[in-house]
């Protein structure tokens, strides 16, 4: 099963309302009979649950991922939905993959909110809008058209300041409502605010903000990866700025209508 990484439209930690957009960084998962010998707590939690609930297993799991871990690019949700989706397909189970991914992510201790918004985007593609406290999908939409995404993918995220983010719950709730009308502007406000609250280096963002080509920019998820959104064909100046701060990759928003839907 193939799923996708993503970038944040609205961080779900402060208000439980979250929105993510799938990007063309792929995660593939394969399962076979055997014992999983890896060290992923998330994968172990999923396998233990499936064995206890459905008497499925033992299973070995192979993950092929283009998404760096602990980077804010939704790697955990991509892996969990790919694994659950593959188990669902192979054993013909009636399960809600994104919702179960969120529940098991909390159980595994890899997510505070369960990251339902990330799971929905990873599994279905496009842009998700969710209320994670109640595991509720509010909407799924196509991504903005004719845009490019430039990333500096950075792994090994420092410990997230959850309580600090939660102080801004009202602001992030308003950004979420803005996202329902204007995804790109909400993405920019969210990215800048997360960078400010979590204390990441703002020099790249300050430089990007001076360029009219940049539609949105900031920190994805809880960081530390940096992203910028621009119109297709206008990537040059943004690429030059970001390349001063790390290795830049160019990806695009994706819509998987007809795949996992």
From TrEMBL:
Keyword annotations of the record: Amino-acid biosynthesis, Aromatic amino acid biosynthesis, ATP-binding, Cytoplasm, Kinase, Nucleotide-binding, Transferase
Any one of the GO CC terms: cytoplasm
InterPro entries: GHMP_kinase_C_dom, GHMP_kinase_C_sf, GHMP_kinase_N_dom, Ribosomal_Su5_D2-typ_SF, Ribsml_uS5_D2-typ_fold_subgr, SK_arc
Sample GO molecular function, one term: shikimate kinase activity
Residue ranges of domain GHMP kinase C-terminal in the record: 206-247
Gene3D superfamilies: 3.30.230.10
Protein name: Shikimate kinase
Keyword Amino-acid biosynthesis: yes
Reactions mediated catalytically: shikimate + ATP = 3-phosphoshikimate + ADP + H(+)
GO biological process terms on file: amino acid biosynthetic process; aromatic amino acid family biosynthetic process; chorismate biosynthetic process
Stretches assigned to the GHMP kinase N-terminal domain: 42-126
Major localization listed first in the record, in broad terms: cytoplasm
SUPFAM superfamilies found in the cross-reference section: GHMP Kinase, C-terminal domain, Ribosomal protein S5 domain 2-like
Gene label: aroK
Residues that span the membrane, as ranges: none
PANTHER family: HOMOSERINE/4-DIPHOSPHOCYTIDYL-2-C-METHYL-D-ERYTHRITOL KINASE (PTHR20861), SHIKIMATE KINASE (PTHR20861:SF3)
Similarity annotation: Belongs to the GHMP kinase family. Archaeal shikimate kinase subfamily.
Top-level lineage group: Archaea
Organism lineage string: Archaea, Thermoproteota, Thermoprotei, Sulfolobales, Sulfolobaceae
Protein's pathway: Metabolic intermediate biosynthesis; chorismate biosynthesis; chorismate from D-erythrose 4-phosphate and phosphoenolpyruvate: step 5/7
Pfam families: GHMP_kinases_C, GHMP_kinases_N
EC number: 2.7.1.71
């Amino acid at each position: 099963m193939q799923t996708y990484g993503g970038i944040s439209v609205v961080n779900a930690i402060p208000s439980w309302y979250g929105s993510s957009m799938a990007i063309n960084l792929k995660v593939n998962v394969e399962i076979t009979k055997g014992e999983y010998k890896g060290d992923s707590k998330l994968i172990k939690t999923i396998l233990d649950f499936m064995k206890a609930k459905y008497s499925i297993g033992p299973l070995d799991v192979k993950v092929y991922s283009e998404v760096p871990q602990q980077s804010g690019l939704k790697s955990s949700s991509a892996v969990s939905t790919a694994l659950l989706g593959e188990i669902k397909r192979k054993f013909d189970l009636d399960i809600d993959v994104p919702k179960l991914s969120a529940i098991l992510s909390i159980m595994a201790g890899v997510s505070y909110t369960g990251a339902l918004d990330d799971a929905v985007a990873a599994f279905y593609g496009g842009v998700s809008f969710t209320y994670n406290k109640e595991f509720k999908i509010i909407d799924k939409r196509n991504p903005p058209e004719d845009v490019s995404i430039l990333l500096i993918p950075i792994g090994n995220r420092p410990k997230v300041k959850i309580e600090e983010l939660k102080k801004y719950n009202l602001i992030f709730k308003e950004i979420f409502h803005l996202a329902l009308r204007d995804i790109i502007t909400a993405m920019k406000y969210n990215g800048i605010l997360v960078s400010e609250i979590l204390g990441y280096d703002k020099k790249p963002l300050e430089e990007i903000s001076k360029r009219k080509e940049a539609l949105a920019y900031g920190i994805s998820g809880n960081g530390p990866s940096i992203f910028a959104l621009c119109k297709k064909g206008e990537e040059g100046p943004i690429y030059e700025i970001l390349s001063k701060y790390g290795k830049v990759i160019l990806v695009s928003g994706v819509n998987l209508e007809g795949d996992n839907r």
